[in-house]
Amino acid sequence: MKSKQLTEILEAHAKFVKGDPAGKRADLSNADLSRANLSGANLAFALLRGANLEKANFTDARLGNADFSGANLKNADLRRADLTETILAGADMTGVQLGGVECFRADLTNAILRNANLRATNFRYAKMQGADLRGADVTTTILRETDLAGVNLSGLDLSTTLLPPNFKATSAAG
Question: Which residues of the chain have pLDDT under 70?
Answer without folding.
Answer: 168-174
